[in-house]
Design goal:
single chain; alpha+beta; Serum Albumin, Chain A, Domain 1; seven-stranded antiparallel β-sheet; six-stranded antiparallel β-sheet; 19 helices; globular
């Protein structure tokens, strides 16, 4: 196993292979490393070791979640089992980012037996009681009225049935342990609790869950326990175990039904109904997650897979399709030329997202045409090295839609991304999300999403909200294959930054030879020259940078016409990269949070 914790460069080089494995939090000097079952974090260690073919890896946004995934792999679980364990653990230790119970998930799975990649669509629809006028009047308010049907639980159970090997109790054991025994509050977690202070203090069930005994918002060094969530997990495990008499498939179905057709659906419907929500029991009864065909492009011999609409995953593919004919050997990774062509391709991709992407059950999304080489070539011709594209950008395929340029409240998102490769070669790339709020449902420990807020209230847009419609979902991990085997698993959180960060990290690895860790650590740039992903769809027509870009590069970009904005929404990234000749794995986890990646 390889672990490192260094203050500036989180990479251990062994045998010429750079394997990034980290135990850290935001650049604040915190040593957050593998925690013992008690939740206490021991001192980090560094034991360089070159992984061998058949090795395995986990990278996630929290060291305890990574340990949960490793625990399951070492118990004989598949990448699907381990991914479920990671997601459940994150529901406990990163509760403001995601939930296997109340959130939504998009994921990709490579089955080593068949060599096929599939996409998991585990995102629920808007409630059937939705009233657009009523919602519009409350669109900028947090609350239960913003909840869609939670799709994540059904999706994870579907993966457990199709690709898993272990039983539900085994997979949920780490999460139940963390929830019952407690876990330490890191500096990153403390800052995020502070950012959600109003949610915590306003909603009684959330306050009961997270306020300390003396009424404080949790601070660094405090211990948090969530016994209600542990009890919900245990109830679902008990139902699963009772169903095993009819076989594993029957057990999975029993646990699915208990959530969507039993007491938890009732609890969520009652809770949201009391707070002006739109969900009904029939909405839960009619929902099922699906395993669907992914979408993909060929990037110069690398097959890049994404999640189909209603995910925004096509956005990354649109940008890469434009970029694949550029000769990046003429650029350096942080040069103005390299940044410029990526920014311009990203603008065109996000314009297409705005014009075309919605729920394909409600609107026609011309996926094949958008991802054709002919369309990519026509888009590439719109890019000049000496000038910039600005919104509004003409829609090449249909009548243009414009959005007003209006102010938007700040947002850092509630999303997490993680990736797993098991010793058999199966691979899971996952991005899962709550939206942006911290709302606990009664005494269930369930954290409720507010994904409705990403709908448009303009009936002329493909993402217009309607009862039973699925929101254009920002979650979109990607997976790239080379020679038919996993090469890159990646994701970046942060609403519109997701596809942008993924483009930047993919290009860094493929075109500039960066390691996985170098790619996720790199300072990011963010274009906002298109309608943002959250109504009222603000357009800023600017370009923002994290610290780390040279001043002469930014001045060069300004000279071409880029308007340089202040601040940046960088999100958090995670990546696994596999050497297709040796099978050796690189793990990258983001130093902007509590992330850790481990290769064994």
């Amino acid at each position: 196993m390889t672990r490192t914790n260094t203050p500036t460069r989180y990479a251990a080089v062994a045998g010429g292979i750079c394997i990034a494995v980290l135990f850290f939090t935001l650049a604040c000097g915190n040593d957050a490393s593998t925690a013992a079952p008690s939740g206490e974090a021991p001192e980090p260690i560094s034991v360089p070791q070159v992984p061998t073919p058949g090795g395995y890896a986990v990278t996630s946004a929290h060291y305890l979640a990574t340990e949960a995934g490793l625990e399951i792999l070492e118990a004989g679980g598949t990448a699907a089992d381990a991914a479920f364990a990671v997601a459940a653990a994150l529901s406990v230790v990163d509760p403001y980012l995601s939930s296997v119970l109340g959130g939504g998930t998009w994921a990709l799975y490579f089955d080593a037996t068949t060599g096929q990649v599939t996409s998991l669509d585990a995102v629920g629809p808007a409630g059937s009681l939705l009233d657009v006028d009523d919602y519009a009047a409350r669109s900028l308010e947090f609350g239960a009225h913003q909840a869609v049907v939670p799709g994540a639980w059904d999706g994870w159970m579907l993966w457990l049935r199709e690709y898993g090997r272990l039983d539900l109790g085994d997979v949920l054991a780490p999460a139940m342990r963390f929830a019952e025994d407690g876990f330490p509050v890191t500096p990153v977690m403390a800052s995020r609790f502070q950012a959600r202070r109003q949610n915590i203090e306003t909603w009684p069930d959330t306050a009961a869950t997270y306020l300390q005994d003396d009424g404080r918002i949790p601070e660094e060094g405090d211990t948090i326990r969530i016994p209600d969530m542990a009890q919900t997990f245990r109830e679902l495990v008990a139902i699963y175990n009772d169903g095993l008499a009819g076989g594993r498939g029957a057990a999975v179905q029993a646990a699915r039904d208990h959530f969507y057709r039993g007491p938890f659906a009732q609890a969520i419907v009652d809770f949201t109904g009391e707070l002006g929500g739109y969900l009904t029991l029939e909405d839960f009864h009619g929902f099922e997650a699906q395993i669907v065909e992914p979408i993909s492009i060929d990037y110069n011999g690398i097959e890049v897979f994404q999640n189909p609409p209603n995910s925004q995953g096509i956005t990354q593919l649109l940008a890469l399709n434009v970029l694949k004919d550029y000769d990046f050997s003429r650029f350096s990774v942080d040069s103005a030329d390299a940044v410029h062509v990526q920014v311009e391709a990203i603008k065109l991709a996000f314009a297409d997202r705005y014009h075309h992407v919605g729920d394909p059950d409600f609107v026609e999304v011309p996926v094949a045409e958008l991802l054709s080489d002919e369309y990519a070539a026509s888009q590439r011709q719109r890019i000049s090295m000496d000038s910039v594209l600005e919104w509004p950008l003409e829609n090449q395929l249909a009548a243009d839609r414009l959005s007003a340029v209006v102010a938007m409240h700040p947002d850092d998102g509630n999303t997490t991304t993680f990736h797993v490769i098991d010793g058999e070669g199966n691979a899971a790339a996952v991005t899962t999300s709550l939206g942006y709020q911290l709302m606990v449902v009664g005494d269930t420990g369930i954290h409720l999403n507010n994904r409705m807020r990403m709908f448009s209230i303009d009936p002329n847009e493909p993402n217009f909200m309607e009862p039973g419609k699925r929101v254009r979902h920002t979650s979109n991990p990607y997976m790239a294959l080379r020679d038919g085997q996993p090469y890159i698993l990646g994701g970046n959180t942060g609403n519109d930054m997701q596809s942008q960060g993924q483009v930047q990290q993919f290009i860094a690895v493929v075109e500039f030879g960066a390691t996985a860790q170098e790619a996720v650590e790199r300072p990011r740039f963010e274009s906002r020259a298109f309608p943002q992903g959250i109504p009222p769809y603000a357009v800023h027509n600017d370009l923002r940078f994290e610290d780390g870009f040279a001043g002469h590069v930014i001045r060069d970009l300004q000279a071409r016409g880029h308007v340089i904005g202040e601040g940046v929404l960088a999100g958090s990234a995670a990546m696994l990269v596999v050497d297709h000749e040796t099978g050796e794995i690189q793990a990258g986890a983001d130093p902007r949070g509590d992330g850790t990646g481990v290769v064994r």
